[in-house]
TrEMBL record:
Residues 38-529 form the Topo IIA-type catalytic domain. This is DNA gyrase subunit A. InterPro entries: GyrA, GyrA/parC_rep, Gyrase/topoIV_suA_C, Topo_IIA-like_dom_sf, Topo_IIA_A/C_ab, Topo_IIA_A_a_sf, Topo_IIA_dom_A, Type_II_DNA_Topoisomerases. It catalyses: ATP-dependent breakage, passage and rejoining of double-stranded DNA. The keyword Cytoplasm applies. Keywords: ATP-binding, Cytoplasm, DNA-binding, Isomerase, Nucleotide-binding, Topoisomerase. Belongs to the type II topoisomerase GyrA/ParC subunit family. Heterotetramer, composed of two GyrA and two GyrB chains. In the heterotetramer, GyrA contains the active site tyrosine that forms a transient covalent intermediate with DNA, while GyrB binds cofactors and catalyzes ATP hydrolysis.
Amino acid sequence: MSDNPPTDHRDITPVTIEEEMRRSYLDYAMSVIVSRALPDVRDGLKPVHRRILYAMKEGGYDYNRPYRKSARIVGDVMGQYHPHGDAAIYDAMVRMAQNFSMRLPLVDGQGNFGSMDGDPPAAMRYTEARLARVASEALLEDIDRDTVDFQDNYDETTKEPTVLPARFPNLLINGAGGIAVGMATNVPPHNLGEVIDACCAYVDDPGIDVTGLMEHLPGPDFPTGALVVGRKGIRDAYHAGRGSVVMRARTHTEPARSDRTAIVVTEVPYQVNKARMVERIAELVRDKGIDGIVDLRDESDRDGLRVVIECHKHAQVDVVLNQLYRHTPLQTTFGVNMLALNGGRPEMLSLKDVIAAFVHFREEVITRRTAYELARARERAHILVGLAIAVANLDPVIKLIREAASPDEARQGLIAKAWPADAVAPLIAVIDEPGHRVAEDGTYRLSPEQAKAILDLRLHRLTGLEREKIEHELNEIVTKIQEYLAILGSRDKLMQVLRDELVEIKERYANPRRTELQEGEFEQDDEDLIPREEMVVTVSHNGYVKRVPLSAYRAQRRGGKGRSGMSTREEDFVDQVFVCDTHTPVLFFSSRGMVYKLKVYRLPTGTPASRGKPFVNLLPLEADETISICMPLPEDESTWEQMYVMFATASGNVRRNSLSDFVNVKANGKIAMKLNEGDRLVSVRVCGEEHDALLATAGGKAVRFPVTDVRVFRGRDSTGVRGVRLGKDDRVISMSILHHVDVTIEEREAYLRYATARRRTTEDEAPCTPQDVGIEIPSERIAELEEQEEMILSVADDGFGKLTPAYEYRVTNRGGQGIANMDLARNGVQREVVAAFSVDLGDQLMLVTDGGQLIRCPVEGIRVAGRNTRGVRLLRVADGERVVSVARLAERDIEAAAEDGDEGADAEGGSESVVENTVADTGNDGDGPVSGAAGEEPEDQE
């Protein structure tokens, strides 16, 4: 025996797993693309939809027949054509029956077929269906006339069409959606009449471009109506096959109860779930994502859709509606992706490509149908010619049949004999049937089919009347054959037939457009809807804010008593007031170094006597976070590049940034300044390079240095640099921005001596002059210094305070210990400074103690004194009580506005702040220690 092993003769081909995976995946992908997910450009149907309609046609479930159970239809489709799950088939059939999904429903359903709220349809054993008339007459018409190709079904037991002979471009009219492997399609529905007009325009002029077609087909027409805003997305989709169409609900306003206005939604965008839309609106109202909505109701019924959104009586309805468009499905987009099978291959198609493919397909269908009808007409004419020959030669034919021994012999005799054509010859020539023509001698030989028809002819057909019927039918058939031959012989006539059939479908099934096309941009900023109006913004000490129209303060005549600026509790008071425009941006700086930004129109509206709303309801503040500084800014953000903002913290650090760093502030805020553990932000002021910064401490020190001594920081995550060197247990309480004035020591001392003498002069005495106190400095220089004079108010926690000319605070280097600001020693008890800031003599002060005592006094009554003095008593505090807060109220402008509409706030410009504020850091004001971002040392710490 041989030692060689037996040879295996099986055909084994080694294949790498990568190659096998690649081939298998490609086969799967192509199967999904061609046989499942993408529609055919010709009839606009996927295989499952095509099989459902064809099975209903074959099963006799026509529009003029009774409804049949959906389960039976699904069973027919699954058993013969579509070997997939019954749920998939039923879902596809349900969608074709939904008038809110299909612009032209193809299935006539009876029962629960779902709703716009996302309710599922009833089970297939409960619902009934049949073909819609348009599907029977326009999609399936002529399918039995060899108009389309057929293929074997999945088990090769029957045939199914590869495409339906659609009479209208269903891909455009009903749209399509599907996700394949690596590609997807999403075609919007359109109006039948407009689509057919575009097809006719293409038939009339095949060279027409997309722009010309859009004159007839301006855009989608969704079954749910609503609006399409803007034309750019439509143009992109029609030219390139891809674009984004913005859909918006149709709304109107109605008066509601309690002087409210209601927004009523009557149409929603296509494919929007109404119930989820209402839930989304409710969520936004609950989470304060949208302000101004007080009630929400869904009043939809069988008569139509109706969702009522009631707005607050003070709300801007246009703004609320714009926010609804931005944050809810009231406005959504339809991503057009006109991908379809064209010639069996997936292809991105423009509007012209889709119409051209459909028209070419209809040419083919009409050609095949005409050829089929010509063949059938010729077959019938062939029989009628034989009968006409027999009638024309009736006696010879009867004699031949009588003499024949059998039917077969009679048939052979009829075929063998050449019969005179006589009057039938012209008709035979028109029929022009190949192989069956009149001979040159005027005779005609019958075919076996004609001979059989003659032998099957009943005797009553030989009467004169019946002979006329045969002749008449033959003439009609000949006329039809002439028409068919003319259509097949002339493309112009074929295209005319195509056009006529399109117009017929339009006249029978077209209805008015439902979706309104609107010009303009789809996105509109809330600010564009807000009218410009002067507002008085009021902030209370406990963090309540509101805005009131300035006109509300102008309602009184001159000489009135004025009106309350805010309804407050005993422990609260008006802390800040400023007049600005509704479009003015305001920065809100918090105690933990965050900044928030709101336009004035986003602040809550109120009346002059109302309290307002707390900041915690407007801004995402943490539990221990309070708003300490409100800063109105110029509306033109381009000017912020030339402006700076200076920060000061309780630990003595300062930082200067460009104001443009705070242009973009998100809704959840932005870090304004990094704070160390236990540090807090005490002041934020806008400044220029011509200003000085004055830092005041609780220990009675003050340091003044040029703003330019602090470099401009490029980031916001720094703790800054040292502004003042603090003593033990000392802290910064305020920062003032002063005009920088170049003055010598002699000029400063001389001016202070003159200013002291001037203030001691009584009204009965002659005005004091520089020469009266022996000042040799020119009077012009003294007058210049007097014009630029600024006053610094300092208040201690025991209620004593004083005014000091800013000239007494000489300019030094940043980071020093500073100079004395106030004498705090009293009876051996060390007091603290609670406020130190610049004021005008016409301002008023509000002093508050920790015991709830409050006093309001004018600044001009306070004594002017030197730096290292104690001042005068401003508020008599009880034992154990101390002043905790001092606010500057420059409200003379507001009072003037209340008395006279032509004076007051407008005199100095409504966009400028009429109130400045310094909230004293007392150490026990409820803010507590705030944790900053640790891990980084302060820059330039000296």
